[in-house]
Design brief:
- The complex is a heterotrimer of chains A (about 775), B (about 280) and C (about 150).
- Chain B is α+β, with helices and mostly antiparallel strands and about 280 residues long.
- Helices cover about 35% and strands about 25% of the residues of chain B.
- Chain B contains 12 helices and 14 strands.
- In chain B, α5 packs antiparallel against α8.
- Chain B is globular.
- Chain B starts with 6 loop residues before the first strand and ends with a helix.
- Chain C has a single domain (about 1-145), classed as START domain (Alpha-D-Glucose-1,6-Bisphosphate, Chain A, domain 4), CATH 3.30.530.20.
- Chain C is globular.
């Protein structure tokens, strides 16, 4: 029965709407991996290395196997043929260690999986893990990336004693001339510490093998169900069409679930061996130790400039802490930093050298921003350092160097083409909101009273909407299918796999507007390879810009078909379709979408050359990335007694192009800023010299809490992207990218009267206090 | 994050609980805010848990003359929200409102916090400043121990095997006494890097310090200087003297000592301003 | 983690030096240990049941005495491992005579791994200090008791 009978004119795109997915999330009726129960399901628990580096002399599983309730115990040699855990990134000369799903004769980082116990319940599995006896011969570990590539460091992989996984060089323009002509050169070592992504839901896998069909189903908390299906099938030597990956609700990923991990193949292996379903749920301890970490940069920046502040050239030596292995995109992440290193500035002369360093630590990989926060932090710190050197105002030096509005599309010295921009607009807006000029006066007064008040700016750009396929390892397009059911209800199937981004709402908004139906008449399905056509996934701020655009194009195709059926039903040559109705303007007669959908399924009569049914699928290949930008402004005050930092004002002005749902965009900016504050002020994954992760729990790893967060004032400028017809750019990572340099710039500004020029993150009170004590001495 | 197997009993009466606790391997469970995480990490593996957190006999707040009696099973939130505590022992109200987060305060108990004796817990600073008394009970015995004797070392108290805290006794604050609890929060755990509890009146001053050393203590040297000089800065300057300061990634020993001095000064000033 | 400190024990230096290497005395003073099994020259194996308040763990380990320079100093190497982690400690003990007593200065390095290192970070240093303190308290007690 048709329900959409009234003409709908209210547009939903642009409207702040509550999320369609929220009722199930906040009432506990959503299904996560750990909610899956199956008859005869076994439970797995993994024994992990307590050492950062050690040879495995022996593994004795006899007592564990004999433990009542234990179904199986597997060690490295049992799973030797599974895998390896894939590295999807390729760089010239990249050294790729063979990453077994279980360690065979050596462990390379704390938490490295050594054996898996499978038992009738999770308690027995955990008890039996304690019954496995492993004899280790401990080896010297190295966890500091600079020490790792320095002389005398113990080799992480004995076959590559220099611990160098790759060297990467990129250059644009004429750097040497730029530096030779420079009137001033500023240099600074800037670090971006290791961070633990800390999604609310840890990872988890359920695997079920149907021995009759020889078909494997894997439920996993992942951002990339289709890529996982392809890769896990390869790892297990299983035919891809007989592997199904289901992504139920995913409680956050932040990039850490943009990966294929050992456990996914391992559970597939167990299910295939035993012919019984098996579940593994990662503990929080394991999540801290064994899920990828983010960042891990040591950057040596040099910026050449003229005395008037014109930036002439930028050099960067980047040491990336890779950890012991490459996960899916590990070595690619720092190359994104290089692409973004000139920031928003008209500087063509750039040179970057990356050294990828193996360390005895869990691999680093994509974490909210993935390479761009590091780059932005670097260039935005350097611009402030240059401004201080030249005694220029940090806003003025930025405005002087911005790419001009008439220069877009702008080819950067790093090979990108910035699609659009109006970089001064968000900076001016942020400065107005925070009352920049009066603030500087207030700061002068504060300083005369001995107070340490700081004002910090960052202006950032980002590479979003990943991305054109040639620039991504596994395809950068996205897919969408839109079906109109016989009743006129609409089902959208997206190949992107949202996990908190609210795309069930934004895609429904786009669909509702295009088809002229209500938002509740649309359902958005995703995350099941048996239901949804192949897709790439959700990461790199691509969900709406690429996935949403695919939905948009599928809808355009569908509208053509709707009009054909409409014309047939109205016996007209020329009909229009809008607001859910096909109208013959000559006769004034109309037919509703529901009537058309019904007719297309009953198929009593077909328009010429047209198939029954009402389904269209579109695979959209973006011609370019999209390049959002913005400006953050932060006022801080440092307590002279304790080194505590108080954030007095936080203003974030983002330009993410057209906005589909302002409520969701605000939420993304808030969340992004919070994670940026986490890095700037509190979070750090700390390994000791022996490779022990001493921030292995939330008792010591300080993720931000609501009570620690200042009021975040958000505003926008709108510069639509020409890359896609929606004019959208992506906003998932913007807050994080803009945040950390603005906060550090603000605190450095506060302490500049004491001669402080740079502070590495996290800016703990003790670090600040030591700087103040140093200045007093 | 799965504990070893254990037996669990939830006795209906205190007497029954004490009988069960007399068994070797039995461990009392109150709010479980420290014990349960340790068990899940398998750093603690008691054979038998005796749940005393449900005993109504241990859940009360009473004023008797010049003393407040608080049952050991009283949750932090019950203490925090109690008008009687707010009126008669404001230092406890203020201190308890600084513990962890609301989830912890809903479960954690005053007796559990004292018995665990975490070197960074908030409550012990107040107990020291209040010269709290702990009524300890075991099968066939009862005794009262003062705070200075109760806290022995890191995670170590005067409690004997099979013995639990039944009640915490603190004085009713007299008119003219000002109090304050000042805390530097460890951002990950919410524990105190240092926490200083102060009571001050025209007659006396009491300073309790937590987080700095292996156990909370009364800074009598600082109290003496304050008594003779009424100078918060001078008194605070000696609060960390002789302390064997803790050190970890969140605060080195020297920074902790510095913070102890700063927070002591703040607490003294604020308490003095509240003497009214 | 570097640790150092000193304790004064109420016995003369020669005796302190001897007793600090006596497996029977060491077994009495090491926490949760009642017996040291000789496995080599100056090398012993042991089981330790460590218990600090709610924390408990079973460790198997070794003690070794090395670089002995009687009666001035020697190295004490201790290692233990259990399901909750492992620890390795090496300490140089320097003995200085005082009137009828001996000052024992120790300076060493403790390595801790596994769960205890990952989650016990904030308590590790205090715990080490407490264990060493208990060791010397028991030692002073054991050293002054008449041997049976």
């Amino acid at each position: 029965m048709a329900t959409t009978t009234i003409t709908k004119t209210e547009k939903l795109v642009g409207k702040a709407m509550r999320r369609q997915e929220d009722p199930r999330l906040i009432t506990g009726s959503a299904t996560y991996v750990d909610d899956i129960q199956m008859p005869g399901m076994l439970h797995a628990c993994i024994l992990r290395s307590p050492h950062g580096a050690a040879n495995i002399k022996s593994v004795d599983i006899a007592a564990a196997l004999a433990h009542p309730g234990v179904a199986a115990v597997y060690v490295g040699k049992d799973t030797e043929k599974v895998g390896p855990v894939p590295c999807g990134a390729s760089l010239p000369g990249l050294r790729v260690p063979h990453h077994y799903v279980l360690a065979i004769d050596r462990v390379y980082f704390i938490g490295h999986p050594v054996a898996v116990v499978v038992a009738t319940d999770k308690y027995i599995a955990r008890d039996a893990v304690d019954l496995i006896e492993v004899e280790y011969e401990t080896l010297q570990a190295v966890t500091d990336p600079e020490k790792a590539i320095g002389p005398g460091a113990p080799p992480v992989h004995p076959e590559w004693p220099d611990n160098v996984a790759f060297n990467y060089h990129q250059e644009g323009g004429d750097v040497d001339t730029a530096f030779a002509q420079a009137e001033v050169v500023v240099k600074q070592r800037i670090t971006s510490q290791r961070l633990i992504p800390s999604s609310m839901e840890t990872r988890g896998v359920v695997a079920d093998y149907n021995t009759g069909d020889k078909a494997l189903t894997i439920w996993s908390s992942t951002q990339i169900p289709h890529l996982m299906r392809t890769l896990v099938a390869q790892m297990l030597g299983a035919p891809e069409h007989k592997v199904r990956v289901v992504t139920p609700e995913v409680g956050g990923g932040f990039g850490s679930k943009l990966n294929v991990y050992a456990e996914e193949a391992l559970m597939g292996f167990v299910a295939m061996k035993l012919g019984q379903p098996v579940k593994w749920i990662e503990s929080r301890r394991e999540n801290c130790m064994c899920t990828i970490h983010g960042r891990g940069h040591v950057d040596y920046f040099e910026v050449a400039a003229k005395k008037d502040g014109t930036i002439l050239g930028i050099k960067l030596k980047l040491i990336q802490d890779l950890g012991a292995y490459h996960q899916l995109l590990t070595p690619a992440i720092p190359t994104l930093s290089v692409l973004m290193m000139p920031g928003l500035y008209r500087c063509q002369n750039v040179r970057a050298d990356i050294v990828g360093a193996f360390t005895n630590a869990v691999p680093t990989d994509a974490y909210r921003g993935a390479g761009r926060p590091e780059a932005t932090h670097g260039i935005e710190r350097m611009v402030d350092i240059l401004a201080a050197e030249l005694k220029m105002d940090p806003a003025e030096i930025r405005l002087k160097n911005f790419i001009h509005n008439d220069e877009f599309p702008y080819a950067t010295g790093t090979g990108l083409s910035y699609d659009s921009g109006n970089y001064a607009a968000p900076l001016h807006k942020a400065m107005d909101l925070i009352d920049y000029h009066n603030l500087r006066e207030e700061q002068r007064q504060a300083r005369s009273q001995g107070r340490l008040m700081g004002i910090g700016l960052s202006t950032y750009g980002e590479i979003c909407a990943f991305g054109p396929s040639p620039a991504t390892p596994a395809g950068g397009w996205e897919s969408a299918t839109v079906k109109i059911e016989p009743s006129g209800m609409v089902t959208v199937m997206t190949g992107s796999s949202p996990h908190g981004q609210g795309e069930e709402t934004t895609f429904a908004q786009i669909t509702a507007d295009e088809l002229g139906v209500g938002i509740d008449d649309v359902i958005v399905l995703h995350g099941d390879t048996a239901i949804v056509q192949y897709g790439i996934g959700t990461f790199g701020s691509r969900g709406t810009a690429v996935g949403g655009t695919a939905v948009y194009f599928a809808l355009q195709e569908l509208k053509k078909k709707i009009k054909k059926y409409g014309a047939m039903l109205l016996e007209s040559e020329e009909v229009s379709f809008s607001d859910g109705v096909c109208v013959d303007h000559k006769t004034g007669k109309s037919v509703t979408l529901a009537e058309i959908a019904g007719a297309s399924h009953r198929a009593m009569k077909l328009p010429p050359g047209t198939q029954p049914g009402m389904v269209e699928t579109y695979f959209w290949e973006p011609p370019n990335f999209a390049f959002p930008f913005g400006a953050h402004a932060v006022v801080t005050e440092v307590n002279r007694e304790t080194g505590d930092i108080e954030i007095k004002r936080y203003v974030a002005v983002d330009d993410c192009g057209n906005i589909i749902n302002p409520l969701i965009v605000a939420g993304q900016v808030h969340g992004g800023v919070v994670q940026g504050l986490g890095q700037a002020l509190w979070e750090q994954a700390v390994y000791d010299d022996n490779g022990q992760l001493i921030t292995g729990e939330f008792m010591d790893y300080a993720i931000p809490r609501a009570s620690m967060i200042p009021w975040i004032e958000t505003e926008h400028t709108v510069t639509p992207s020409p890359v896609n017809p929606l004019g959208v750019k992506g906003v998932g990572e913007a807050g994080t990218i803009g945040c950390s340099p603005a906060v550090v710039n603000s605190v450095v500004d506060a302490l500049s009267t004491l001669g402080v020029r740079h502070i590495d993150m996290p800016m703990t009170p003790e670090k600040i206090w030591n700087l103040m004590e140093g200045a007093r001495a | 994050m799965i504990s070893q197997q254990f037996e669990y009993s939830a006795p209906a009466t205190l007497q029954e609980a004490l009988d069960l606790l007399a068994n070797e391997g039995a461990k009392p469970l109150a709010g479980g805010m420290s014990l349960i995480p340790m068990m899940k990490l398998r750093l603690a593996a008691p054979e038998q848990l005796i749940d005393i957190g449900r005993l109504r006999e241990l859940n009360y707040i009473r004023r008797e003359g010049e003393q407040m009696h608080i049952g050991a099973g009283t949750t932090h939130w019950d203490v925090e929200s109690s008008p009687i505590v707010r009126a008669h022992c404001p230092l406890l109200s203020e201190t308890v409102s600084n513990i962890g987060d609301i989830q912890v305060r809903n479960r954690g108990t005053i007796g559990g916090s004292a018995a665990h004796a975490d070197p960074s817990a908030d409550y012990p600073a107040a107990f020291c400043a209040l010269e709290a008394q702990f009524k300890l009970v075991k099968k066939g015995g009862e005794r009262v121990v003062g705070a200075s004797d109760f806290f022995v070392d890191m995670l170590t108290t005067a409690l004997e095997s099979g013995e639990i805290i039944a009640e915490v006794i603190v004085p009713v604050e007299q008119r003219g006494t000002g109090v304050s609890y000042q805390k530097c929060v460890q951002p990950a755990s919410g524990f105190a890097i240092v926490g200083v509890a102060v009571r001050v009146s025209s007659e006396f001053v009491r300073i309790g310090v937590t987080g700095l050393g292996a156990k909370a203590y009364r800074a009598t040297n600082a109290e003496e200087i304050y008594t003779s000089t009424h100078d918060a800065a001078k008194a605070a300057a000696v609060v960390a003297d002789g302390a064997d300061s803790n050190s970890d990634i969140h605060a080195s020993a020297s920074y902790r000592k510095h913070l102890a001095r700063i927070y002591t000064q703040r607490a003294l000033k604020e308490a003095a301003s509240r003497m009214g | 983690m570097k640790i150092s400190g000193s304790y004064t024990v109420p016995i003369p230096r020669d005796e302190a030096y001897k007793l600090l290497q006596d497996p029977v005395i060491l077994a009495k003073c090491m926490p949760g240990t009642d017996h040291l099994e000789k496995i080599g020259e100056d090398e012993y194996e042991m089981k330790m049941k460590m218990a600090i308040a709610s924390f408990s763990g079973l460790f198997t380990g070794k003690v070794k005495i090395a670089d002995a320079h009687p009666p001035d100093n020697f190295m004490l190497l201790v290692e233990g491992s259990g399901k909750v982690g492992f620890l390795k400690g090496s300490g140089l003990l320097n003995l200085t005579p005082q009137e009828g007593a001996t000052e024992v200065k120790y300076e060493g390095d403790v390595q801790v791994g596994g769960t205890i290192a990952a989650v016990g970070q904030r308590l590790l240093e205090s715990t080490s200090k407490m264990i060493i303190k208990k060791f010397f308290e028991k030692f002073a007690e054991a050293a002054t008791q008449p041997t049976t």
